[in-house]
Every structure is written in structure tokens, then in C-alpha cells.
């Protein structure tokens, strides 16, 4: 595409997106543990008129300020994290999750007797049944605050941007905030604040404040009815905090930037398809901070952050944006990008979760697919008739060599996956390096598992797994029969016959 036809700033957005892995951001704030308990509801309790959840899965992830860190890690950003936890099991679980996150340096100060904030969500299918919170809102002790500031001071020289993530859980006391602002000023670091509560004077010294519209209204006591009222409210926050700018997130209206010099810029929302807004603010804050740490202009950082928020609201649950998704989001604004069917396993599971939240049945099949032939196409088409979305698992090159011998595959894994992705019955393609797709099947939990009619129920890998949770195993009768090996042998025979004729 010629430069003249590109939207304004597109090359800069792509460049910033591609450089995010060089960013460094230090986060300080309220750490939480988000726990998800998933299962099925098939009956009502005889003890009370409430559903009985038969639990099938439990999972944990960092929440609160920890979700900002999780977003930074997903983007490849080097993230420092300073927070307080209790001396309890949720605190230990949170510490282990952060220790396993790539590029994250976490310094968690333990306060004896203080409960680590734990939010537990009980989910049946795509319906949230209940959330329980175990927490205290009491301010941390002064000794804990001093410990936090000591850890912050030790990490701070390596990070050009601080992110203050306030969830109102008592960690960001006046002592901690004042110490953070003073340290940033001494080092020349910029401070981005995601605020909480009505008293924004606590954040004096911040470079950028990022309230949503409800928080902006609460902090200023103003009704936000038009652009003039937004500008007036933002000016009040700038004056109170001594900030360079205010970035107001306005839900379906997008976001607005208001600068200390009186200028403003509005950025429209990127997605009309909203499935879950959980964590979108954390994604936006993470990308904004990452861009600023690279020296990019705030307006450019905000545009990229807005695209990232548009990525996560199309997912289910507290999700993150990955670099390739962010780049596709940038390119799609110019009509140069779109949804890519070839995805990593992690991305595939996010997509499957979204499909299930929409009540769609997921099918799965797998193979080497070395040379696509009519038998493959027929099998895929017939499998797609049994489900709403079809996932195809493809053996990697190494896996094919182990199964078929050193002369295979004829086509490499990227070519094989790309060819499958071009077929209309296929909705997602992912590679697996194991000899069998068993682990992939366990992760996807397809409603329908399909293989060709040359298999039997006993020889289909994963059939027992799928049947155990009530899924269907389908053997697709194919006429006429075909195989890649037969095609290759016929090609070789044809080549030999031609060589003999030539001699």
C-alpha cells in the first residue's frame, strides 16, 4: 500500500507495536488473586432454591494491579511489580504465578495477618452464578509501606515509567504514593495513574491520569453531558494533580486526551463487538505505559492502547492482548489485516472460549495434511456440518518425520496450515508437536471429535476423553477413499516411468 493511502500515523503505530518488547514498566498497586471455578448446572439443590454447580475446573490468575503486569508480560514488556500480600495461601499462589510470568520481576511484601485479596467467580457455561470477595480495605501498616518503598527504590532505576494501579484495597496509602512520586521525580521517570476514589489530590506529581468517565465525574463532582463538561472536568484534574495530561476512557465512545496546554484529542472506540469488558482498562493502561517508556508521544500510545482494548473486549473473561493480535488490529484499520485462522494453542483456547460463550458447538479433527486432496476436503466439510466451528490440529514437521519417516513432510508446517486455513469449513488451525493430539484434545474439549472412516472408535486418539464428558466421536465415511501416501507413490511411479521412457 502506498504511503499516501495509509491512515495518518499508521507507520508509526506499526513501528510502536513492533517495539513494545523493548519497553520497561514498573507497576505498584493493589495485588489480587482472581480465581475461576467452572462447571455445569444440571439440578437445583433440594436444600434451597439454588443451582448446584458440578465443578469441572479451577484456575487462578493475577488480578488487580497484577493484571496490568500480566498484560505487560503478554506483550513481551519487561515488568517490575511491587505490591503487598498476606501470609496466606492466595498470597503464595499469586507469588508463584508472578514468578512463572516471563519478563516479570515481582517484589511482594508480606504483611502478617493481612488477607490477600481473593475474588472467586463461579461460572456455569458462559453464565456467572456468583462472585465472592475475601479482602480487607484497611490501609497497610507503616512497616509494610516502608518495605514497599524500599523495594520500589531498589527496582526503580531500571524503569523509565511507573504505573500506579489503584484498586482501593489499602496498599496505596498517602505514604506510599508520596514516596513513589518523589522517587519518580528524582529519577526523571514518568508516572501514569489509574485512579480510584474521589480524592485525586493523592496523585499529585503524576504525569498522566487515566480515569473512566464515572471516576472522572466522581472526582470532580461534575455532570459529564457534553464535550465542554469533559474538558472542564479534565482541566480540574490536571490542576489538582499537576499532570501533563488526562486520558478519559469513555466506554463505547472511545477515549479522550486532554493536555495541560488546553488541547484535546478524541479517539473513537475500535470494536462494536463487545463480549466482555473485564480487564480492558488494564490492557489499555499497560500499552499506554509501554509506549511511553519507549519515548513515543502520548497521543500515539493512546491510539495503540485503544486498539489493544478493542482486542480484549472481543474475548471472554479477563483477557490480554498479544503482540500479533495488536499488530493485526493496527493493520485492520487500513484494510490490510484481518482474523488469522492459524493460531497458537493459547490463542486457540481464547477463541474456543469465545465460541462457547456464544453457545456454539466446537468440532475437532487432526492430521498431517501433507498434500491436501479431495478426501481431506470432503472429511472437513462433513465434519463442519456436525458443529458450528471447526478446529484442525496439524502435526509439526518434526512430528511428521517421526511418524512418516525422514522423507516427509513434502510441504512444511506453515504451508500445510496455511492451505487448511484457506478452506471455508475450517475456522481455526493450530500446530502440535506431540506424536498424538491427545493433550490438544484435552485442552480444547471439543463437542465433536471427527476422523475418517478408515479409523475405528478404538483407534481414534482422544475418543475416550471426549466421550467421558459427553462429547460425540464421529467417523466420517469417505468415498472415494484417498491418501497422501498413495498420491506420493503415484507421483514417484509416474516420474520413474517417464525417466525409463526418456532412456
Describe this structure in words.
With 503 residues, this protein is of the alpha/beta class. It is 39% helix and 24% strand. The strands form three sheets. It has a nine-stranded mixed beta sheet, with helices on both faces. Helix 1 (10-19) runs antiparallel to helix 10 and helix 2 (65-74) packs across helix 8 (280-293).
What helical percentage do the residues reach? 25-40%
Strand order of the largest sheet: 5-4-1-8-9-10-11-12-13
The overall strand count is 18
Based on CA inertia axes, which overall geometry fits?
Answer: globular
Distance from N terminus to C terminus (CA atoms, Å) equals 51 Å
Gyration radius (Cα, Å) is 27 Å
| Sheet having the most strands | 9 strands, mixed
- Mean pLDDT over all positions: 88
Give the DSSP E fraction (strand runs of 2 or more residues).
15-25%
Low-confidence stretches: 1-8
Question: Total helix count?
Answer: 17
Topology:
Elements: H1 10-19, E1 24-29, E2 31-44, E3 51-64, H2 65-74, E4 78-86, H3 89-100, E5 104-111, E6 117-124, E7 127-134, H4 142-155, E8 161-165, H5 174-187, E9 190-194, E10 208-209, H6 213-220, H7 227-241, E11 245-249, E12 255-259, E13 264-267, H8 280-293, H9 298-312, H10 323-332, H11 345-357, E14 362-367, H12 374-384, E15 389-395, H13 397-404, H14 413-421, E16 428-432, H15 438-444, E17 448-452, H16 463-468, E18 472-476, H17 484-502
Parallel strand pairs: 1-4, 1-8, 2-6, 4-5, 8-9, 9-10, 10-11, 14-15, 14-17, 15-16, 17-18
Antiparallel strand pairs: 2-3, 6-7, 11-12, 12-13
